[in-house]
Predict the structure of Threonylcarbamoyl-AMP synthase.
Amino acid sequence: MTELLGPGDLARAAALLRDGRLVAFPTETVYGLGGDATNAEAVAGIFAAKGRPHFNPLICHYPSAEAAFADVLADERAHRLAAQFWPGALTLVLPRAAACRVDLLAGAGLDTLAVRVPANPLARALLREVGVPVAAPSANRSGQVSPTTAAHVLDGLGGRIAAVVDGGPCTVGVESTVLDLAGNGPEGAAVLLRPGGVPAEAIEALLGPIGRALPVAAAAATASLRSPGLLLSHYAPGLPVRLDAISLAPDEALLAFGRPLPGAALAWNLSERGDLQEAAARLFAGLRWLDAEGTRRGCRGIAVMPVPETGLGAAINDRLARAAAPRG
Ligand code: TXA
Ligand code: MG
């Protein structure tokens, strides 16, 4: 049985984590599947619970930049980014410090580590109480749509983990932006590995131009090299997903943005007023709902209206492209 915990049960959640058990908890981006990052068995348990086909490096979560930077070598750019965007939806990939406490498996044996200080107050209080870095991928079975509510977590992982802390729906709704500062870009330039909750434009306003990993559409051949999590087919609902729809077949469900295409029997609007922040927060819940309802009503697929590529739109389009990618 998976315990359902509330905001008043953080001591219990922290005790479970310190005991090596797995606890899902809310962050502002998506729910994370947490385990003690210094405990090899807990880390192995995360991969097993998710059903990850291979060891894909995990993000470590901390209550403060000071705590995070104890485990990695933070340069001046990292300090500036942390000052501006932490706590928040930005993950920094940095070289592991010699004294790094995080188990090697959590970083998939790489000499770098991804670190983040989430903004959700429950997450921060929990991390403070646990006192060790917490490794946490999104709390879904591998390849499925990320969870933005405790109910989503239980759908995929109920019975496989010790507990989930219910903190209500996530406010950002797409995962953190992953930025590589470990010197893998040309002349050590920062490289955007995954668009996410902090828009690339905001990072470039601080650092100047940053490199981009290949866009999803072009990434199929090389996706597994730099960041093994960036596999192409991901966030996949059961129904096929068709992008950039400008018209609708009678048996298609509609994921709308702005004024909806006419004639949909089943529709979820990301944001009627065309607001990207609202759309990000409603994306994963919408995919899940259309998938379940559409399947129940015999729909053939999900048609998705175009979403602009600016700001949070880049993260939304990245997730939609993966949801629509050929299934491996
Ligand atoms: O918003 C988020 O980031 C959520 C919440 C729970 O914090 N977590 C999340 O974790 O999305 P996950 O495991 O689903 O995605 C982690 C991403 C993967 O694409 C992985 O390949 C990349 O970060 N990553 C982790 N460590 C890395 C490293 N050392 N080098 C390059 N990429 C890394
Ligand atoms: Mg994930």
Summary: DSSP finds ten helices and 15 strands in the chain. The domain at 3-226 is CATH 3.90.870.10 (DHBP synthase). The mean pLDDT is 93.
